Each structure stands twice: as structure tokens, then as C-alpha cells.
Amino acid sequence: MMIERAVSYGICPGYVLSDSRYAWPFFICKIRNIGDKGMHVICRLKNGNIKYLYKGKGYNLEELYKKVRKKMKRDRKTGLFMARMRVRPPGSDEDVVIVFSKGYKEPEDDTVKGLKKKKQPKWAAFLSTDAALHSSTIIKTYVKRWPIEVCFKECWQMLGLGKDHSNDFNALVFATTASFIRYNLLNYLNEQENHATLGVLFEHLADDYAVITYSQRLWNFFRGLFLISFKTIFDLFEIEEDFQSYFDILSDAVKGSAPIQGCET
């Protein structure tokens, strides 16, 4: 529905890219039927029970891979071992190309030291409804979706995406838009100021400029109230000792217990 809406506003992409979560024949057919079939789909496939028609018989992805694994050749452009075959997905009236590759790895924006790496599959499969594309072009086009994944990851982790607790739909739309505006501005600053990594820049600025949640505003109110109370008590009883240390202990105790977790009222 989102893609149909975009097309109705004149945004007509050449390819719709998706990971294996959306690589269903029904989804692919629906995309191809939008408009005048000018849009193609490139996606990664998940090894499952879906049967693709090949030379009059149905085969799942594992069975198709066994047919081509000995025919794989190294591609000069990508360095991957690849083989392709033309098949027809269930419920479709047109052939598609499936490219099998060995050695493919998803790009990684950061490698965390000490973190156990995910086990990589022995092979990966990619589908393209545009049968005219070269195998390496299919994979290179698919990889273009990675910056979008990074955008959502960074916005979610450091720029407040999905953290707004409002019950108003327009407020949620604005909060989401504001997260993406922050991301674009930070990327621009990163290019201008040549920061080593985006993460360092995000962490440096997000703390100062991210949306203040309701719980944070509530704590700021009580913090001011405690500060006035301590000052008044010390002045009333003419206590000459600095009350800041007592105030710090109380602040740490309240923040450590974290009694408020996203109040919506």
C-alpha cells in the first residue's frame, strides 16, 4: 500500500529492494502488478519450502542450489563464486532469475571487539524479476539497501526513533520525521567536519539535542524541587555545611531506582 501510494504521487522507482523477510511470491507479484510493470524486485531469499518451477518441476531453494553448486564460477567484479538459473515462482506468469553465491557477507558498519560474530551461511540466494541484469549487478543493487538499514539502526539507537510516548498520531509522525532530520543533519556535519565515525558524532550531539521524554521532564521538575528544599532547610537551620553532597546522594538514589518508565498521562 505504501508503494502504491508513492507511485500515485509520481514516485516510480526502478527496483524495490527487500531482505528475505519480504521475499514471498505473493509480495513480489503484487509489486510487479503496480502500474505498468515498470518496477522490478530484487531481494534476498530465505531457504524454505517455497517451490520454484524449473524445467517443468518444482524445487525448493536447497534443491536448486544443489543443481548449480558445481557450476559456480568466480565473478571478477565481486570476487564471489556465483551461478544463476531462470525459474518461475508459484502464482506468477513470468520467469525470474535466482543468483546463488558463495562468500557473500552483509556489510557491517561497526565490528564490536569481543562480540561473537554471527555464523555466516555457506551460500546465499538473490532473486531478480529483471532477468536482463548481470549477476554481479543484481547483488550490487541489493547491497544499496544497506545504508537504509544503517539509517534506521542509528535513528533507533541514538536519535529517538520510536521513543515518543504521545498518544496523538500527528505527534508520532512529527517525532519520526524529527529523527530522520537529525540523521540527515548529522550526516552532513560528518561530511563537513570529517569525523572518524558517525557513532561518535551521534553520541556527542544526541545527548544535548534529542527529544526530552516525559519522564526526563518530570525528573527535572523534582530535581529543582529537591534543590530548593535543601537550600531552604539549610538556610532555615543556619547549617553552614555544603548541601551539594547530600543532594548528589539523593539524585543518584532516585536515578538508580528508575521508577518512571515512559509515562503517557
Outline of the structure:
By secondary structure, the protein is α+β, with helices and mostly antiparallel strands. Helices cover 45% and strands 14% of the residues.
- Looking at the structure, what is the overall shape? elongated
Share of residues in strands? 5-15%
Instruction: Give a short account of the largest sheet.
Output: 6 strands, mixed
Number of domains: 3
Question: Number of helical segments?
Answer: 9
The low-confidence runs, each spanning 5 or more residues with pLDDT under 50, are: 260-265
Description:
The chain has 265 residues and is α+β, with helices and mostly antiparallel strands. It folds into three domains: 2-144, no CATH class; 149-209; 214-257. 45% of the residues lie in helices and 14% in strands. It has helices spanning 2-8, 25-32, 61-68, 135-143, 146-158, 169-193, 198-209, 214-236, 244-257; strands at 15-18, 40-44, 52-54, 57-59, 73-74, 81-87, 96-102, 124-128. It has a six-stranded mixed beta sheet with strand order 1-2-8-7-6-5, sandwiched between helices. Helix 5 crosses helix 6 (169-193). The longest helix has 25 residues, at 169-193. The radius of gyration is 27 Å and the shape is elongated. Residues 260-265 have low confidence and may be disordered.
